[in-house]
Fold this sequence. Notes:
The protein has one domain (15-144). It is 28% helix and 24% strand. The chain contains 5 helices and 6 strands; from the N terminus they run H-E-H-E-E-E-H-E-H-E-H. Strands 1, 2, 3, 4, 5 and 6 form a 6-stranded mixed beta sheet that branches.
Amino acid sequence: MTRVTRLVYMVPLNIETYFQSLYARRHSAARIRHRSVSIGDWVPERNRCHANVDHFVKLNQCSKAVRGWMIISEDANGRCWFEAHSVIEEQGELLDITLPDQAACNLIRFLRHVGTEEEFWKIAIDGGHRQMLYPPLTHQELRNADFEEDD
């Protein structure tokens, strides 16, 4: 009996290169408008953007799910805090249905994921990179850091 194994070769995603590319595009990040939505008794849950968008899009064919990254902050050294995020797109406009209001949307900018949805999930969820500081701290910066201890 001969056993045949089919191997699927995938080019591994290079996380450093991926976030370097995001960082290079940070100035093109878009501001997002908030949109309050509800469908029957359903309202989007905080901190569940991917599930919220998937549910909404399934029930609204005029909407499209857009995966990407919120830029939550950029420090004086130019480091950005990226967080995986999903929004909807309607008629070319990006709309956030998860953040609580427009004031929250005004605090962030959004960068679309460039690549397939499968690659997005592989990086953000499977790869454990839901949040990322880029460029990362150097070993020297970590050694010199003065971390406060919790009481």
